[in-house]
Specification:
Blueprint (H helix, E strand, L loop, with lengths): L17 E3 L5 E4 L6 H4 L25 H6 L3 H12 L14 H12 L30 H15 L5 H15 L66 H13 L5 H11 L4 E2 L5 H4 L35 E2 L10 H8 L2 E5 L5 E5 L8 E2 L7 E2 L5 H8 L1 H12 L1 H17 L34 H12 L5 H12 L29 H20 L9 H19 L22 H4 L6 E2 L4 E2 L9 H11 L4 H13 L23 H7 L3 E5 L6 E6 L5 E6 H8 L1 H11 L4 H16 L4 H4 L2
Antiparallel strand pairs: 1-2, 3-4, 5-6, 7-8, 9-10, 11-12, 12-13
Helix pairs in contact: 3-5, 3-6, 4-6, 7-11, 8-12, 8-13, 11-12, 12-13, 14-17, 15-17, 17-24, 20-23, 20-24, 21-23, 22-23
Length: about 750
């Protein structure tokens, strides 16, 4: 896992805000106004949705990164990267004269934040440049790696993002040391603000681990086992050198990164073939603040060390010291041979951290010193390395790797490629000359279009056929939503393309009302068969397109019933994936355990939070703004597109399946008052103030649009007497956006 972390504290510079005078000197601490959430911490935070519409970077809408990337001289860029990593700088000397292992660690720790639970994290955005990642203990001294890359970034400018550059540097590093990579795909634009939607953990201190339940399972969507680390503590769980326990933690953490045992073992063994770890002395004694807490004159660099020279042989990063192999800048079988063919004992290294040394004197001094060509050192192993040897399943895998070097090379190449690209979505988003032709199941492939697409005449014909069935407006809308709203903008997975709603595991999800879904799909399949078989040309319609078209037809009908003539945009071109093209286990993470748009909440959502918080999280994964979230909830309610479990909660209208603004009018009306039906305050009765009669029922998701001050301002726009027309148009726009979130093919047109 090419993992290092620092145990240095922040020297207290993260304290109270201070005022500065004109020459930059520090004055006495001054009182600063508290943020809104400090005054009212229980207020629903919807600011994470602002990042979906706000442009905080320097680029306007005219800049297209994919176009800029296509102008890149990719070969020249790789040559420049190779020159950088083989040219040692005095201000941060290269181990063994080669920065390759440092760049591998940088790439690994950029991409390795990905977790399949919610698709967040990963190398996209180049977020390692930003807090908190830039100051995580596990990323100690990676600030130097990025500074080493700055001349390359400066030279190519907008043609290569930091996100792509950091990962490509890891690839080039491996190739420069004799490894054949699987390929590389660019196309990751840079972020200029941290992703506020990511929950990194409940702890308020680094290197703590208050994130496990009584069964030692990670809670919520978390992927790492320790605050501030990428995966697991290399010394062992909770700082204890216990290889067996470490193996358990590795399996859980890497599993949340979508890696199976073979991929996990390949990544650890392959990554630890290169480089060394750094623990020349005790970090707590010698290492100062991380970048975000460092003095201004350090210009964004952190972890300044007062031990010796503070660099080179005196470097302190993880507190663990030494190389894994006798050839740290060469791809070979050295790691596997040393680990499996020798015995290892635990001890405290020079940095005061737990590490493992060989018991045999024959291995003494077999490795080169990183900075003195005349000296030699002993190899070492981490507790996480010994875990591979002690765990029976991992051991079987690495023994196979030892016996089959080509298999090891291939397994590591594929696992590394997956690590770097897991958050990019389908292969069609990849850019550059090194994109592999092979389709990989974790890329969620769909077939290419092999027929003529339906046009306006056929679309009108199919809409009529759909509306002539016994499928209700509500059912059509729910089915289209269930298909498209699986999309996650975090890792670009899910969506309507592929029609996976008819396949395992989607068709069995409780949120999709499996019985009614099955009946609806049968009707769609009949329409599809009649249409396709009845043609004497090459025009065909996929089930994926038909499902989305059904939602559009239903909304147009519902709008017409309310007196509004609208056309819901529709873009054909979706295809139908097969079960073999569907990674069932990986797709299980996409199952909606909470969907406020449908007023659905599973008995066990799998994480802590309120229904309204789950709604905001879902809206963020759909890349929605606060206004889009608001109008979609209101529209789904009046269309009666709530889950059967909700039993009509939130349908504030006497005209269900009609696209009116009744939801907002009745929500905001002072003719009604709201009373919880129990102390839990999950369901509420809407009572007429004069008669006391119960008009409707509602959930917290409904009431939040009248309770939260920001959401109420939006609800008031749509609930005004002149607000219905805008409501209808905004609903259609937001609906169309959700239906096309996964249509990356349209972006290229």
């Amino acid at each position: 896992m090419s993992q290092e972390y620092s145990t240095g504290d922040t020297n207290g510079t993260n304290g109270c805000p201070v005022m500065h005078n004109g020459n930059g000197s520090v004055e006495e601490p001054a009182h600063m106004p508290a943020a809104k959430r400090e005054w009212w911490p229980s207020s629903l935070d919807i600011e994470i949705l602002d990042q979906n519409v706000q442009n905080v970077g320097p680029w306007n809408g005219e800049f297209d990164y994919s176009d800029a990337f296509k102008q890149l001289d990719f070969g020249a860029l790789k040559e420049d990267l190779h020159e950088v990593m083989t040219t040692s700088k005095d201000w941060w000397p290269a181990d063994y004269g080669h920065y390759g292992p440092l760049f591998i660690r940088m790439a690994w720790h950029s991409a390795g934040t990905y977790r399949t639970t919610d698709g967040r994290g990963g190398g996209a955005g180049g977020r390692q440049r930003l807090a908190p990642l830039n100051s995580w203990p596990d990323n100690a001294n990676l600030d130097k790696a990025r500074r080493l890359l700055w001349p390359v970034k400066q030279k190519y400018g907008r043609k290569i993002s930091w996100a792509d550059l950091m990962l490509l540097a890891g690839n080039v590093a491996m190739e420069s040391m004799g490894f054949e990579t699987f390929g590389f795909g660019g196309g990751r634009p840079d972020d200029y603000k941290p992703d506020g939607s990511i929950d990194w953990g409940p702890e308020d201190e680094m290197e703590t681990w208050d994130r496990f339940d009584e069964n030692d399972e990670l809670e919520g969507n978390l992927g790492a086992t320790v605050m501030g680390l990428i995966y697991v503590n290399p010394e062992g769980p909770e700082g204890k050198p216990d290889p067996e326990w470490s193996a358990q933690r590795i399996r859980k953490s890497f599993g949340r990164m979508a890696m199976n045992d073979r991929e996990t073992a390949a990544l650890i063994a392959g990554g630890h073939t290169f480089g060394k770890v750094h623990g020349a002395a005790d970090s707590e004694e010698y290492v100062a603040a991380e970048p975000e807490a460092a003095p201004i004159e350090q210009q964004g660099l952190g972890w300044k060390s007062e031990y010796g020279s503070g660099k080179g042989a005196d470097t302190i990063t993880s507190g663990i010291e030494g190389p894994w192999t006798d050839e740290p800048t060469q791809w070979d079988q050295g790691y596997l041979d040393l680990l499996l063919d020798n015995e290892w004992e635990v001890h405290e290294g020079p940095g005061g951290a737990w590490q493992w040394r060989p018991t045999s004197d024959e291995l003494k001094g077999i490795a080169p010193d990183a900075h003195d060509s005349s000296a030699t050192v002993d190899p070492m192993m981490l507790t996480t390395d010994i875990a591979l040897k002690r765990d029976p399943d991992y051991r079987e895998i690495i023994e196979d790797f030892q016996e089959n070097p080509d298999g090891f090379q291939d397994a590591f190449a594929r696992a590394w490629f997956k690590l770097l690209h897991r958050d990019m979505g389908p292969k069609e988003r990849y850019l550059g000359p090194e994109v592999p032709e092979e389709d990989l199941i974790w890329q969620d492939p769909v077939p290419d279009v092999d027929h003529e697409l339906i046009g306006d005449e056929e679309i009108a014909e199919l809409k009529e056929a759909i509306l002539d069935t016994d499928l209700s407006v509500s059912r059509l809308v729910k089915t289209a939503w269930a298909s498209a709203s699986t999309y996650r903008d975090s890792d670009k997975r899910g969506g309507a393309n592929g029609a996976r709603i008819r396949l395992k595991p989607h068709r069995t999800w409780e949120a999709n009302e499996p019985y009614e879904l099955s009946r609806t799909l049968n009707v769609f399949e009949d329409i599809q068969e009649d249409f396709n078989d009845g043609r004497d040309d090459d025009v065909r319609v996929s089930l994926a397109d038909l499902i989305v078209l059904g939602g559009a037809a239903a909304i147009e009908q519902a709008a017409a019933d309310a007196g509004h003539d609208v056309t819901v945009p529709f873009h054909p071109g979706r295809t139908d994936a097969t079960q073999k093209q569907t990674d069932v286990e990986a797709f299980e993470w996409l199952e909606p355990k909470a969907d406020g748009f449908r007023n659905y909440l599973a008995d066990d959502p799998g994480r802590d939070g309120t229904p309204e918080e789950f709604l905001v999280d879902k809206a963020d994964l759909l890349n929605l703004s606060p206004a889009e979230m608001t109008v979609l909830v209101g529209g789904m309610r009046v269309l009666d597109a709530t889950h059967e479990q909700a039993d009509g909660h939130g349908v504030f209208t006497d005209r269900p399946e009609t696209l009116t603004n009744d939801y907002f009018k009745n929500l905001l009306s002072m003719d009604y008052e709201w009373e919880p039906v129990s102390k839990a305050k999950q369901v509420f009765e809407v009572q007429d103030r004069d008669t006391g009669e119960i008009e409707w029922t509602a959930t917290r998701v409904d009431l939040i649009f009248g309770s939260n001050s920001r959401l109420r301002t939006l609800a008031e726009v749509y609930g005004a007497d002149d607000g219905e027309e805008k409501f209808v148009q905004d609903f259609v726009d937001a609906w169309s956006k959700v239906m096309t979130l996964d249509r990356f093919d349209l972006e290229a047109k």
